[in-house]
Amino acid sequence: MIVRFFDWEQPKNVYNSIKDLKPGDQVVADHVWGGLFIAKVLVVEKNIENEESAGTVLRKATAQDFQIVLGNKDKERKFLIEVKRESRKLELPMKIVEVNFDLSGSCYVVSFIAEGRIDFRELVRTLSTQHQKTVRFQQIGSRDECRRLGGYGCCGRELCCKKFPGILKSISTDMARCQLISHRGLERLSGVCGRLMCCLAFEAEQYEEMIKDLPQKGDQIDRDGIRGRVIEINALNRNVRVEKDDGTMVVIKWDEKNKK
């Protein structure tokens, strides 16, 4: 079964023997990190391929469980302030995002953002000793933080990372290149998280299929008496703009007869 434990986290597999669960249900699971956490069911009868289990579902969440979560909020805020204070003392270049206590109060999960790897072992020792609890630090990315906070993109719609509960795909500049928009620059292709926009992945596969038989920008072509260099292609209407050897421009339709 696939669930999500935290807003900033990718979906996880869990072992489940509870019947009559459906997407949207809240369950209590024994997490591999230690402690009991509430998770939201995303998919019941499938697992994420090549992904190990993150825990075992024990039961459906009850009103008492949710009361414990609400009761922990004030404690979590105080612990968050303490973690920030201690991290500043140690001069650790990290942004503390959130603290989550488990239902039993034995495990504290601290999510943070940082550029590169951070040696926070001394910080963990300090906090664990002071509170006599298991303290788990989990580094997340800026996209994960946006998923947690939510918001709206430049399109006016809810952020894709928040709206769609699945695994966040890795976005690359190749996706922008195959959709012929890489020339817009990273600033216009980046979302509110500062990373490449998630929506670049939605149509990348279709564009790759559409342009696979088109000439590439910069190619030299000689078709139907037209000889020159390709300076622009349009995957949707299959038009190819060519700069002829004499310097003039011409647009040709790249159809079946042009394929070779």
Task: Describe the overall structure.
A hairpin with a 4-residue loop joins β3 and β4. It contains seven helices and twelve strands. With 260 residues, the protein is of the alpha+beta class. The chain is elongated, with a radius of gyration of 25 Å. Helices cover 26% and strands 28% of the residues. The chain has a five-stranded mixed barrel with strand order 1-2-5-3-4. The chain has a four-stranded antiparallel β-sheet with strand order 9-10-11-12, with no helix packed on it. Strands 6-7-8 form a three-stranded mixed β-sheet. The mean pLDDT is 88. The two termini are 48 Å apart. The longest helix is centred in the first third of the chain and has 27 residues. The protein has four domains: 60 residues, no CATH class; 76 residues, GMP Synthetase, Chain A, domain 3 (2-Layer Sandwich), CATH 3.30.300; 58 residues, no CATH class; 46 residues, SH3 type barrels.
